[in-house]
Amino acid sequence: MENQVTLKIQRITIITDSMHIITKEVYFCYGHRLMNHPGKCRNLHGHSVKAAISIKEATLNQDGMVCDFADVRDAVEGFINTVLDHNFLLHKDDPIIPALLANNEQYLAIDDHPTAEVLSRMIYQHVKNQGFNVDQVVLWETASACASYRED
C-alpha cells in the first residue's frame, strides 16, 4: 500500500488600497532639554528643524490634487509659529521653570519630555484636527536624525 500525499494549493489575492500622498516641509527653531537624559541632551540646547507633513487621499479632488500645498502650510505654520518656533520646550516638572517665570522668559511646558518623537506627534495631531488626512509627520532634528509619527 502506497502513502499518498494530497496538496491543496490555494490562490491568495492581496488587495491593496491605492493612495496618493503629498508632503509639505516646514522649518523652525526651538530650544529644549531632556532633563533625565544621561548624555548631552540633558543640557539646555537648541535645534533648527525640518518637519515633513504627509497628507494622503485615495482619490484626487476636482483639481487633480490631494490638496493644495498652501493649505497644508497654512494649517501647520500657524501652529508652529505660535506654539513651537523660537520657544523653549520643557517637561512640565522641569526645575528650571521657576527661573524662567521669574525672568519673564517664554517657554512651553508639556506633559511629555520634548523629544523629536513627541513634537512629531504634536504636529500630527494638530494637522489632523484641522481636517487633513495625515499619513505621517517626520521631524528632522539634525541632518542625519529624524523621528516620525503616524497612526494606523
What's the helix and strand layout?
Elements: E1 20-32, E2 45-57, H1 69-84, E3 87-91, H2 97-102, E4 108-110, H3 116-129, E5 134-142, E6 145-149
Parallel strand pairs: 1-3, 3-4
Antiparallel strand pairs: 1-2, 2-5, 5-6
Overview of the molecule:
Helix content is 24%, strand content 32%. The protein has 152 residues and is of the alpha/beta class. It has one domain: Tetrahydropterin Synthase, Chain A, CATH 3.30.479. It has a 6-stranded mixed sheet with strand order 4-3-1-2-5-6. The protein is flat, with a radius of gyration of 22 Å. The protein starts with 19 loop residues before the first strand and ends with a strand. The mean pLDDT is 93.
Q: Work out the strand percent.
A: 25-35%
Q: Whole-number radius of gyration?
A: 22 Å
SSE pattern: EEHEHEHEE
Outline? flat
CATH architecture: 2-Layer Sandwich
CATH level-4 homologous superfamily: 6-pyruvoyl tetrahydropterin synthase/QueD
Helix content: 10-25%
Please provide the count of β strands: 6
| Average of the residue pLDDT scores | 93
The low-confidence runs, each spanning 5 or more residues with pLDDT under 50, are none
Number of domains: 1
Strand order of the largest sheet: 4-3-1-2-5-6
Q: N-to-C terminal Cα separation, in Å?
A: 54 Å
CATH class membership:
Alpha Beta
What structural class do helix, strand and pairing data support? alpha/beta
The number of helical segments is: 3
CATH topology annotation: Tetrahydropterin Synthase, Chain A
